[in-house]
Each structure stands twice: as structure tokens, then as C-alpha cells.
Amino acid sequence: MYNQITQNKRKSFFLMLIFIAVIALLSWVWSQYSDAGSSMVVFAVILASLMSLMSFYAGDKLALSSAGAKEIKQEDNPYVWRLVENLSITAGLPMPKVYLINDANMNAFATGRDPEHASVALTTGIIQGLENEELEGVIAHELSHIKNYDIRVMMVVIVCIGIITLLSDWLLHSFLWRGNRDSENKANAAIMLIGFILAILSPLFAQLIQMAVSRKREFLADASGALLTRYPEGLAKALEKISTQNNLHPLRNINKATAHLYFANPFKAESVSKLFSTHPPVTERIKALRSM
After folding, report:
1. 142 flagged as catalytic
2. Residue 245 burial (C-beta neighbours within 10 Å; 0-12, 13-18, 19+)
């Protein structure tokens, strides 16, 4: 587990480097095609660096805001507050901020840049729909993401997807506006072809960056959560209930960029290909828990 924490810290650093490199490559092609020169590459690298820093320090606030999460204090919901507080003490973690999302979907997520600046968000649906031991298992899972530094990696991924997709869209529009004006120039035609391929494939590459946060982190968080509560069956039962109910109540405020943050797939099961799903199949997670 300590090795996994170290790997996750290292992974966040390398994701930032890969992110900056992809932005620089897209911008170089754009600068060659648009005759903007090296200034476009320099601008893109600076932009990517600033966005990476912004994701590090403000990504959690953006994720919570997009989910419609509202921060609560102990007096607002003593039951949830004490569950989070007791498990945080058991895990040896600082008490994270607690947020509620007014939604019938049964879900939760953790976010932040480190255990000292972390938040846990729970939907009202998951609080009402799960028994005490089941909800405890879900919260322990999310606290494990904090302890394992998954939250830092997940936060960086959100910005990676957004910026790479945005630049590829700009590149495509640049080709459409300029049309075939430089079609007689073989060098420009070659750059345009390379750029067009990059612009088409970049969103897919962004999805692969999202998948760089391996599904194994979910299995690790399940295992860590079960170790924390000493009751794997609670989390297994929670997964069974959630997989049944969430198809009836899809999460309202959700997009693909933040889907990987959640405890369970926030989309309808049939709407997401297994190849690009950010979560392992529920049956595999339950099987792993019940084999402990």
C-alpha cells in the first residue's frame, strides 16, 4: 500500500509532463500551419503549465461546484459527520471537508490535492438508501482514495482532458477556416495532414490519459476500505444496492470529465462501453470483496 501511495505521487508528476508535451506538440503543428512561429508553442506550454498548477490548487473546487455539492457542518447532519470523523481518526487522516449533493442517485466521491486539503461528497440518495455498515464502507473507500493520493491524480486528469480536447477543436477549426489555400505547398499539405490526424486522435488520447488512472485504484480503495472497517460485506452490499438503483436514477449534474471521480459509474450501465468505462465491473468488485 505504501508503494502504491508513492507510485500515485509519481504518476501525478508524469501525467503533468505528458499533458504539457501533448499540448506543445499540438501547438507546434498549429504554429507551422498558421505561420504563427515558435511563439504559439511557447504560449501553449505556458498555458498548459498554468492550467496544471490551477488543477493542483483549485481542481477540487471546480469538481465540487460542477456536482452542485454544498459544504455542511456537524450540526447540519451529525450522522454523516460522525461517520466521516470516526473513520478519518481510524485511518489516521485529518478530517476532510464534508459535502452533500442533493440527488437521488446513490454515489460519492473524494477530491483534493492531499490529505490536508481533501473533501468528501455524498449524495442524499446514498445516505438515505444505505444501511449504516454499507454507508461506512463507501466512506472508508473514499477516505482510502485520499490516503493513497488517488485524489491528486484524478484532479490532474480532469484538466488534461479539457485542455487537450479544446486545443484539438481549435486545430480542426483552423483547418476548416483556411480550407485548401495552401494545398499547392507540399510541406503545408503534409503538416495539415499530420495536424488533422492529431486533432482527430487527441480527444481519444485524452480519454486514454483518463484511463491512466487505472481501474486497479478502485480495487485498491475497496481493499483499503475493507481493511479500515474490518467488514468487506458492508461495501459489497452497498455495491449491490447501488448497481440496482442507479440505473433508475442517473446522476443529474455529471459529465465525462468528472465521471472517474465517483464511487460508482454515474451513467446508465448501457450507455458506457466497457472499454472506456472508468470503473471496473461491479460484479468483479463484489467478488474481490467477498473473497477477502
Report:
1. yes
2. middle
